[in-house]
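Class prep. Sample record?

___
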Amino acid sequence: MALPLSCLVIDDEPLACQLLERFIGRVDSLCWLSSCSNAVDALSLIRQHRPNLLFLDIEMPEVNGLELLSSLPTNRPQVILTTAFPDYALDGFEYDVTDYLLKPIRFDRFLRAIHKVHGRSELISSGSGAGNLDQTALVENLPPPDSTLWLKVNKQQIRLPLSEIVFLESMKDYTHFTLEGQSLRVHQPLSAIEALLGEEFLRINRSFIVRCSAITAIKANAVELITKHQLPIGITYRELVRDRLRQYISAP
């Protein structure tokens, strides 16, 4: 049987640390090592204990979580970001974090993140080591995400298959879902919902996330969807969009 994954919690909020420590204690495949409230102590603990997994808050005094991430070597532990600010989600994934948990953290969402951690750990152990592992293969071989979303719409919970979503649009505190044949609006920001979507979905600008398989054409600065919508590709997103869509649509 594989040894439990050792975990370090880094958060300047004591209650947040206690919650994560309790969650870790409920999972047999995890082992809590320590908790700390700042990046300086975190670096010392990482060097001392060499944990397998970091639960890392972003908003911390002096040195924030993303700055701490940038200072770690390439063979660093896996990282799950924890924050109350959903706008950091995209920044976090640029650092190749394993997952992103939005506070207040639910235990079921915590378990989904741990499922991803184990999938990545198994892939690394079966290869030649984290330092030589191809990052594209790493993403493609993660366990599949949930195939549905549970959303609160008109005072009721509905189950929405991800395969029915064509694209999502940010409307401040709301997200507008365009489906094949209908649409709906949810009182939840797009950045929070993004953390629940799988690799099939791609952000093309600050306001839109599209399902890759719903794209029928790529134009100079836009994508066309099966619903005939044409959505603009943001300037800072163009290279990412082009690279990601190569696996779905042949380049024109």
Observations:
- The chain has two domains: 5-140, 148-245.
